[in-house]
Design brief:
8 helices; 4 strands; about 55% helix; binds zinc ion
Length: about 200
């Protein structure tokens, strides 16, 4: 993706989502194969699954940005300076990649159809059926606690800021929520997501 395209959820992200469910099933299932639900409840399970799905998609977006910045630098070295376009793209993609993690992860728990198909478990899940909520810091904390995965804003910023084109164009991405430095592109991450800072 490049200038102005909209982030989309990748197939690989969905596969990772289902892997988290499998991991949680294994780690919350008794020897008899009965789901005990004692370790990880259904809400936390879905939260973790969406958290890793969006984390992966977020990394894909930033990797695409990095590759495009490197290509832009090659073009620039060939005599095609385009710092304005590069700044516009970074301003668009850097904060929106973080917003993807914090804004768009709406999850849907057990549907009514699912509950009626499995009445025994349905009784457990029915309190949550057809409810939705936004993925939040607790879901990323669970991902970190159980799988050791956590988005790391400062590492990403250092990676991008080390690219020659960023230095040539005097552009710097920052993990701070906002600020007044016109040379910086801010993340928009609120204090609630300080766990993304190292
Ligand atoms: Zn799921």
């Amino acid at each position: 993706m490049w200038f102005g395209s909209t982030p989309t959820i990748s197939d690989a992200g969905i596969v990772l989502h289902e892997y988290v469910h499998a991991y949680n099933d294994i780690n919350s299932t008794s020897a008899a194969g009965i789901v005990t639900l004692t370790h990880i409840d259904t809400s936390a399970d879905e939260g973790m699954a969406y958290a890793i799905q969006y984390t992966y998609t977020h990394l894909e977006i930033l990797n695409s940005l990095k590759e495009n910045l490197e290509q832009q630098f090659a073009d620039q070295s060939a005599g095609d300076p385009s710092c304005d376009n590069i700044r516009t793209a970074v301003q668009s993609i850097w904060p929106s990649s973080w917003a993807l993690l914090t804004d768009s992860g709406v999850e849907y728990l057990a549907s009514n159809a699912w509950v009626s198909a499995f009445p025994l478990l349905g009784a457990v899940f029915s309190a949550h059926s057809n409810q939705s909520r936004t993925i939040g810091p607790n879901d990323y904390q669970s991902l970190s606690n159980h799988l050791g995965v956590l988005p790391d804003c400062d590492s990403m910023a250092n990676l991008l800021n080390g690219l020659p084109v960023m230095q040539a164009c005097c552009i710097e991405v920052s993990c701070e929520e906002s600020g007044t430095d016109s040379g910086r592109v801010y993340s928009g991450l609120t204090n609630a997501y300080s766990l993304f800072r190292n």
